[in-house]
Design a protein that fits this description.
With 595 residues, the protein is of the alpha/beta class. The chain contains 14 helices and 31 strands.
């Protein structure tokens, strides 16, 4: 062995260890950096991941939303999505392996068990890289929900603080996962799981105000509510003649029997209303300005006794937002049982298993989440600018498992006529994707089970099935770009949300979606072929997006003279993003986080 090389390696290792030691006395999350990267990550250093559509598994139902199922490792899928879908995802929900020590997750194709003393570090190395990639896909108002249990909850919280920022932490929901206790465990019984929730950016950059992103219900059927607020200062407030209703006999009242409310001057009650202005001194949650504004809107007030504890009776059209409670209760005997705005109760684990077995008869997936839980979380998403719930957004689940998230999205659209879409990714270990996820989604859409029996009336949706694929990153950069453009159709379909193939040959492709068209030209030299390609575009009616090969990420916008055409270059931008990701992998920036 070369002694110089040996000394250089030793010196490098010492520097790495010294760097780690600097963090040991600091607060935060520190774990063992992987000496050998995951196989799937190493594979990306020399191969560009792509997504290729599987035509034989395409489902099309007219008028439905375009949804995507990806079969493959989620690290590869997230890398590929980063090429074309940055800041396009509104909500991420994932239910990753919990690292229980019972072979529930694998690392480099080996299941990790309790005897592995590095199992927590391996889990953190696995999940951290995927969360970093996923964060880039979220919109600025996007949020992420992550299901987890006690085994990694504390570690995951610190990890997410590092990746998403502690100031973007919304809450840690606690979901009551079962009502079937059976034999009690020693010291405690596990009847809850956690759902960490973070925003991409929880505060407005312009004024620093907190964004209201999660709302359980917008209440319109408001009853009377007290005006008193013990934490506020006392104010003297005036309630105009005829705006206060009394449950007292008509007459003149000079004092209050409740020391928290002081009558500044006598009030005359006639026909159960104040015949003069009522002037009270108390600790109010409203100012005089707000009281006057509410009176102009039609709000009135109510006093039930001679203690003069005044209450508001809201005007018609008055609404208030009710935030979700941190504890998600599932027992219907509990008055605080969580119910979404569509009047659906949040279910328990047993319901998730029953829902899946109603579609897939064989028991090959353990502990799927109930659809109602995911529907509840997704139904909370609120547009704080428009002051209304969102029902037109994209959901990503890259630990999709049995496909519960996809079913939840489609059922929510049925509830309110929404236009939500999903992207699901799962591997095909034990035929999970082909044997569970895909048949489940197909059944929900078509209404027909895999055994040809009727499940439902079906739901109008489109599902497009993709697989991860690769192009070798040749040393010759131009050759890598040539290879990439020949297999880039799937990514461009996802980028433009246009999937239905019209025509495809060895130098071009044409896809459509209603009145939108996607054209891709991947020949680099032939003028004759390009002229034929251009004529097809000009004959097509509707809006058209045209991708043309460019080695420098630039194309001539006058190549096709049509006002309905937008021309874009491929594949330089994709290749540039890929190289950025690879460089970060090689630097190890995605496997070491600490405060």
């Amino acid at each position: 062995m070369d002694k110089k090389k040996s000394y250089e390696d030793l010196e490098k290792r010492i520097i790495e260890l010294e760097s780690k030691l600097k963090f040991l006395n600091k607060y935060g999350l520190v774990w063992d950096k992987e000496d050998t990267k995951e196989d799937v990550v190493l594979h990306c250093e020399n191969n560009i991941p792509l997504l290729v559509q599987e035509e034989d598994k395409k489902i099309i139902c007219n008028e439905g939303e375009n949804n995507i199922l990806i079969e493959g490792d989620n690290y590869h899928a997230l890398t590929a999505l980063n090429f074309v879908a940055k800041e396009t995802i509104d909500i991420i929900y994932i239910d990753p392996p919990y690292n229980t020590g019972h072979n529930d997750f694998s690392y480099n194709d080996k299941f990790v068990d309790k005897e592995d003393c590095y199992r927590h570090s391996k889990w953190l190395n696995m999940i951290s890289k995927r969360l970093v990639l996923a964060k880039e896909l979220l919109k600025k108002d996007g949020i992420i929900f992550i299901s987890i249990d006690d085994k990694e909850q504390a570690n995951l919280k610190l990890l997410c603080d590092s990746i998403f920022g502690e100031n973007n932490f919304i809450t840690n929901f606690c979901w009551e996962k079962t009502q079937h206790f059976g034999r009690q465990k020693i010291n405690y019984y596990s009847n809850c799981e956690y759902i960490l929730c973070y925003a991409k950016k929880l505060f407005n950059s312009d004024n620093g105000s907190l964004k209201e992103l999660l709302v359980e219900k917008v209440k319109t059927d408001l009853i009377d509510a007290p005006l008193f607020n013990a934490s506020n200062k006392e104010n003297i407030l005036t309630f105009k003649k005829g705006t206060v209703k009394f449950n007292l006999k008509d007459g003149t009242y000079k004092t209050s029997k409740n020391e928290s409310y002081l009558l500044i001057k006598p009030v005359i009650i006639k026909n159960s209303l104040n015949a003069n202005d009522l002037i009270l001194k108390f600790k109010s949650r409203w100012s005089q300005k707000t009281i006057d504004e509410e009176i102009n809107k039609g709000t009135t007030f109510w006093i039930k006794s001679d203690g003069f504890a005044i209450r508001t009776v809201y005007h018609l059209g008055k609404t208030t937002n009710e935030s979700p409670k941190q504890l998600i209760f599932t027992n219907t005997n509990n008055p605080l049982c969580s119910i979404n705005r569509f009047k659906t109760k949040v279910g328990v684990n047993e319901e998730g298993s029953n829902e899946l077995s109603n579609i897939i008869t064989q028991n090959i997936f353990s502990y799927p989440k109930p659809v109602s839980l995911i529907k509840y979380l997704l139904s909370l998403y609120y547009n704080y600018d428009l002051k209304q719930h969102n029902n037109n957004f994209t959901v990503l689940d890259f630990f999709a498992g049995s496909g519960t998230t996809g079913q939840a999205v489609m059922e929510l659209n049925k509830e309110d006529g929404g236009h939500r879409k999903f992207i699901l990714c799962t591997n095909n270990e034990n035929n999970i994707c082909t044997g569970v996820t895909y048949p489940r989604l197909k059944t929900v859409i078509s209404g027909i089970r895999p055994d040809a029996t009727k499940y439902s009336e079906g739901l109008p949706n489109n599902l497009f099935y993709f697989k991860t694929d690769f192009v070798k990153d040749e040393n010759n950069t131009e050759q890598a770009r040539y290879s990439l453009v020949e297999k880039v159709d799937g990514l461009l379909c996802i980028a433009e949300n246009i999937f239905e193939e019209v025509e495809r040959n060895d130098y071009s492709s044409h896809y459509k979606s209603k009145n939108k068209h996607l054209f891709i030209f991947n020949d680099y030299y032939s003028k004759e072929k390009f002229d034929e390609f251009k004529q097809r575009i000009l004959k097509t009616i509707g809006s058209k997006i045209v991708y043309i090969y460019s080695s420098n990420n630039d194309v001539d916008p006058t190549l096709i003279n049509d006002k309905d055409v937008i021309i874009k270059p491929i594949p330089s931008k994709i290749y540039e993003i890929y190289k950025e990701i690879v460089e970060e992998i090689k630097r190890g920036e995605w496997t070491w986080f600490s405060h």
